Amino acid sequence: MRILITGVGGPAGASLALQSRERGHEVIGVDMADTMTARIADEFHTVPAATDPDAMPALARIARRSGAELVIPTVQEELPLIAAAAAEVPAPVVVSPFAAIALAHDKRYTMTALAKAGVAVPETFDGMPTGNGPWVIKPRRSRGGRGVQVVEESAGIELDREFELIQEFVPGDEYCPQVYRCPDSGEVTVVVLEKLELREGIVGNALGVLRRDNGEASDIAAIAEDAVVALGLVGPIDLDVRRRANGEPVVLEINARFGANSAAAPELLDAVLAHAERVSGLESAASDSAAGLEEAA
Ligand SMILES: Nc1ncnc2c1ncn2[C@@H]1O[C@H](COP(=O)(O)OP(=O)(O)OP(=O)(O)O)[C@@H](O)[C@H]1O
Ligand SMILES: [Mg+2]
What we know:
Blueprint (H helix, E strand, L loop, with lengths): L1 E5 L4 H12 L3 E6 L11 E4 L8 H12 L3 E3 L6 H7 L12 H8 L1 H10 L18 E5 L9 E3 L12 E5 L5 E2 L2 E4 L6 E8 L13 E4 L5 H14 L3 E9 L5 E7 L11 H30 L1
Parallel strand pairs: 1-2, 1-4, 2-3
Antiparallel strand pairs: 5-6, 5-7, 8-12, 9-10, 9-12, 10-11, 12-13
Helix pairs in contact: 3-4, 4-5
GO molecular function, one term: ATP binding
Protein name: ATP-grasp domain-containing protein
Pfam family, one: PylC-like_N
């Protein structure tokens, strides 16, 4: 299959490109920047930033000219756009419906929607918290862990509520469950990965992950599945989950795309490719039978 991967020079995209090539597929990589990592693709094109009005037309053009048979976005900022523009891309796009993407794209909306659905999340405040911290202040939109601060007291904090939120600091072990939810059957596969060390000590990106199999972290798998179903997400999803001091897991955020650690859960790409092959098989069977009917008529 010819697979177009966006953000191919980033951690999620590069890992996905490598996994696709290892499985014998051809990768058309696109990225804003032409880097050594981006050249992991068989064919590479630079594209405008997601915020550029030409971003989606350019992607559709490249997909058409390169004969892409599947498009897998990995760039966080482009997800709402690509979910909205999916029908204009001349190949199936691996993305959830726009309404689900919009909830996952803003951590404030994610927290509210999950709490409403009965999925545990860190207590997230409307006003300033009172009592004892620590608390976490962070951007409502994912920025690769940038701008996350742990604060001990709320006095003197100025919060830009349009862009930031303040919530309970959750001190326990951190996981990044890798989820696939089939868009047709709704069947869910979860691989629980535990983050081994965080780049900035108590918060941040994982420097390594450990796969937790055989029900070792079945509560983490369960909350990941509940969260994905509650938001109506499908396809590949990467979550951040932490344990409270009492061990109870809470969902920190949901990235509605392949994450940086998907190579440790090859089930995800396997499922995406199997689904794409099934859909294209059904489509060609439908067009064969349409052609057959025309001939008979
Ligand atoms: N409420 C919280 N309690 C404890 N730690 C937190 C909390 N919120 C975020 N963190 C820490 O900060 C990290 C980054 O937060 P978050 O995932 O929400 O931001 P991000 O910009 O989306 O980061 P990335 O894209 O790297 O996942 C988390 O992985 C976790 O280690
Ligand atoms: Mg995160």
